Each structure stands twice: as C-alpha cells, then as structure tokens.
Amino acid sequence: MSETSPIAQSAKVELWIVQWTSTVASEQLRESIPEHLGYILDLERANKVFGSGPLFAPEGPDVGAGLTILRVASREEAEALAAADPLAAAGLRTFEIRRWILVEGSMGIKVRFSDSTFIVE
Q1: How many CB atoms lie within 10 A of CB 89?
Q2: pLDDT (tens digit, 9 = 90+) per residue, 91-108?
Q3: Which residue of 46, 63, 65, 87 shows the fewest CB atoms closer than 10 Å?
Q4: C-alpha span between 15 and 24 (Å, rounded)
C-alpha cells in the first residue's frame, strides 16, 4: 500500500471491540441487565463507548450476546473495563477483545442513543 493511498491517508481511529458471550441462558441475564446498562452508560458519559448493544441469532431471538466498541488508549484498559462490567464480574458473560482500526465512514454529530440527546460537532 502506497503512502498516497486513501487508507494510508485516513484518520485510522483505533478502537477496541468487546464481543460478549453469555455463559447462562438469556433469561438468567435479565435481572442483571439494569446494572450492566448503568455501567455502560457511565462509560458512555466518560466518552469511552463508541457504541454498544445486543447481538441476535439469525432467527432473531435474544441469545444474551453483545458487542461494545470502546474508545480507550490500550488493550489493557479495554480488558479492565470489560472485566469490571457487572455481567462479566458475576461470571454471567465472557468476552473477547479485538483491536479495530476504523478507516472508513464519517460522523458529524454525536448521538447518545441511551438518553436521546445529540451534539453537533
């Protein structure tokens, strides 16, 4: 890839993907979800969450899995935040961390889905 290629010239935003896998039936997760959501919202307010939400099976049912994209400085920080999530700390979910370099896409406003607010940047 040459230095003049669009990818070489892109912003290359480094993010961390947390892929959550349930260790219990989704029904067992439900009572702990409010605590998990509170934790993720706190991270969002600290500007550490790029996006987060549940993953579904191809047929559509909730399988207790999820995906969180963190905006943090290192794998170690991503792992520490994931391990501190109430569902992970209680052993109800495991996680896998992957580094993601965002090279395509655009955004001009910040939308907080959790409280329906937005900021034009």
Answers
A1: 15
A2: 999 999 999 998 877 767
A3: 46
A4: 28
Cα–Cα distance between 85 and 96 in angstroms, integer?
Answer: 13
Please check whether residue 90 is in contact with residue 32, taking contact to mean a CB–CB distance below 8 angstroms: yes
Please check the confidence at residue 110 and state whether its pLDDT lies above 90.
no
In this structure, are residues 108 and 40 in contact, taking their beta carbons and an 8 Å threshold?
A: no
Give all strands of the β-sheet with 62-70 in edge-to-edge order: 49-56, 62-70, 13-22, 93-102
Give me the residue label for tokens 């406003």.
Answer: 109
Structure tokens at 51: 């996006």
List of residues 6+ apart from 40 with CB closer than 8 A: 49, 52, 68, 85
Domains of the chain: 6-120 (3.30.70.1060)
